[in-house]
Write a structure and sequence with these properties.
With 346 residues, the protein is of the alpha/beta class. 55% of the residues lie in helices and 9% in strands. The strands form 2 sheets. The chain has a 5-stranded parallel beta sheet with strand order 2-5-6-1-7, sandwiched between helices. The protein has a two-stranded antiparallel ribbon with strand order 3-4. A hairpin with a 5-residue loop joins strand 3 and strand 4. Helix 2 packs parallel to helix 3 and helix 13 runs antiparallel to helix 15. 35% of the residues are buried.
Amino acid sequence: MTGAGGRCATIAAMSWDVVGHDWAVELLRRDLAHDRLRHAYLFVGPEGVGKRTLAGEFARALLCPASQAPCGQCRHCQLAARGAHPDLFTVAPVVSGKKVRAEKIKIEPVRQLIYDLTLRPVEARRRVALLIRFDAANDEAMNAFLKTLEEPPANVVLLLTAESADALLPTLVSRCEVLALRPLPLAAVQDALITRWLAPQAQAELLARLSGGRLGWAVRALSDPAALDERRQKMDDLRRLVAASRVERFAYADRLARESSTDRLQATLDLWAGFWRDTLLTAAQAAAPIHNLDYADDVRRIAGAVPLDALHAVLAGLRRTHDLLDRNVNARLALEVLLLDWPYLK
């Protein structure tokens, strides 16, 4: 039987446009209801787990004057939902670079935000700042913002998101209330995709598995068929590479290195790592479910033909290559070494 505390958490979660993370919604709702707000909150967790959604809903609640905020109906809620509220400020990374593309937050928008937060609220009771992916800020930007965290202006609440607190300055993290979000149960992701985003049953199950419990990732994949097509192409490439000769693997490594930026290369490695993880789990007869349901036949075939130590070596090679690309090594050479170490199966 669900207790009173559980019912309250469910009701709170229902009034916020957030799927899951009931404990975090309840914590934030109580801070607001009892007027015990911290001046800064840090939402951490894997990419696509729901950090930005939760922070955005909390921002709306902070600006909404209703007793059960956010009401979703008032001028404050509607302006905040459109990103047009005069007391809501957002700083997010900008993607730059051609070959080595990276998301960065530079010093200029942070300096502007610091100034904006010193001014009095225009319409709401307080000013709210959303700093998205602040782990992408350079050291200059982090150090500049540290002063604001240490001595925040009155009537200001700061909401930061990051994949990991370890990527931020320790002094910055210590001045925030940290909320660590975890992936949702796969069944919860699948149900949300079907009921809220009207995904077909089979597609919802596949995306839930591929997401690893990250609903945001699954929703983006559902709305972007091109991304799923690219995944399918790279997975088909993997299937062909396992049976390819050394010369064919060299040619593929050269083409992939020339056609892809570093971030896209690493995304391909992550896709392949998911497949080889499934293969390892299947070979080891583990109870964990595989993620790549649409390639289950290939997973079983390779799992039955490749020794466990060789599968471990493939995964280690993928991690090593991912790290090498971070250090700007020659991508073609790194990919050649990776693919040459893969097992050969007809």
